[in-house]
Design a protein that fits this description.
Elements (H helix, E strand, L loop, with lengths): L11 H11 L16 E2 L34 E9 L4 H19 L3 E2 L24 E6 L1 H4 L37 E7 L2 H14 L4 E10 L27 H7 L14 E10 L1 H5 L3 H8 L28 H7 L5 E2 L2 E7 L6 E11 L6 H11 L6 E11 L11 H4 L2
Antiparallel strand pairs: 1-3, 2-5, 2-6, 4-5, 7-10, 7-11, 8-10, 9-10
The structure holds ligand L6N33NVT and fe (ii) ion (FE2).
Amino acid sequence: MERDNKQDGMSRRDFLKITASVGVGLAIGASGMAAVGKALSPAQPAAAGAEDEKNERIALYGEHQPGIVTPQQTYMYLASFKITAADKLAVIRLFRDWTKFADLSMAGGTMRTGDNPLLPPSDTGETLDLPASRLTVTFGFGPTFFRLDGQDRFGIASKQPQFLKDIPRMPRERLDPLLSGGDVCVQVCAEDQQVAFHAVRNFIRLSTGSATVNWLQEGFISGGSGGQTPRNLFGFKDGTANSLHQTPDGYRDVVWAGADEPDWMQGGTYMAYRKVRMLLEVWDRSSLADQEDTFGRYKESGAAYGKKDEFDHADPSTMPVGAHVRLAKESKQLIHRRGFSYTDGVDPRTGNVNAGLLFVSFQRNPEEQFIPMLKLMQSKDALNEYAMHIASGMFACPGGLREGQYIGQNILES
Ligand SMILES: C=CC1=C(C)c2cc3[nH]c(cc4nc(cc5[nH]c(cc1n2)c(C)c5CCC(=O)O)C(CCC(=O)O)=C4C)c(C)c3C=C
Ligand SMILES: [Fe+2]
């Protein structure tokens, strides 16, 4: 299991002390992007004070990428990129820059802000005084990264892992193709929204000339980092059943790709994404009994029907046919969910609030786990009365990085 580095973690403040004491910025190798090659500590170190768990640094390097089984942070950005570079070397340069920047920003560092007054600062600067804030960056590759319109773009088609395919069409979805899919997906999470935004913004900046952003989603949860299960915008605890597999063996069985997958997927996983609009106005007019019947759990406690406490064993036979949790149980599959709520103003045509769930789940085999579950839910779920799937994506997330490696190296170079 990936470590949170609580014991040996280094906050942005520690990071500043170290870089200041040795009198240099981070030793980052030369790259096409000078900005990333010149890391420096902020001019104004953060004020001293007791370390707060929310400020901690999470390591980029390890057996698995961070942001998959990491306890959920409060904020999330999900960015999808289209690679525009035709040349593999340009892609390698981009991924090197992204990796260096991920390492730097997760450690709480920033790029230089002002070494040449005649040029734009290398760093946008909005995190200069902010701690690492449990920032994580998770990269995933979509099917079109390997093959676009039947073409092997970068000579890597043979590296496509077996289950990396678009999620098949579902009966009740209304997908917006402009908000779906992509060659590369970057999930950025942090306890501080500005820290998360800074990272995503600079990933976009670094991609200039090599990639463009297809779509960018912004999510939040509450209560997750306090150890409580966060509540979704329907007011229900969402994520309870993750507790069924949150052990190293459970993660091996549910999340991490099998030994029959390519080398670069060892320690990796598949990320399924669905943007699900939640019809808040319809939901808010429904009775408490209808709301609870929809999930088969009690609203306040989060306990399954017939049970008292949130984590008591759930018995699907006590739940109405069509209850969301009953259907998930009937699929006999487990997935690791890591969703975030979103809000997006008001639909000007109807006056209804645009809001919902950025559903993200990680699983070792989407064809066996996620897709059958989704099919069952799309045809029978009581939740369908209150929700509509509007965007979709499937991405293969490589295993974790060793220091010196860049993301995607085992795909592009071996
Ligand atoms: C295909 C997978 C799933 C989609 C899509 C999905 C959407 C969705 N879910 C909620 C709210 C809740 N889901 C809950 C449990 C739950 N959901 C899924 C899968 C999908 N959900 C699973 C596998 C489970 C676990 C079931 C189990 O084994 O007990 C719950 C109950 C609490 C919990 O365990 O998290 C809620 C609440 C919404 C609002 C939503 C789309 C808008
Ligand atoms: Fe669910």
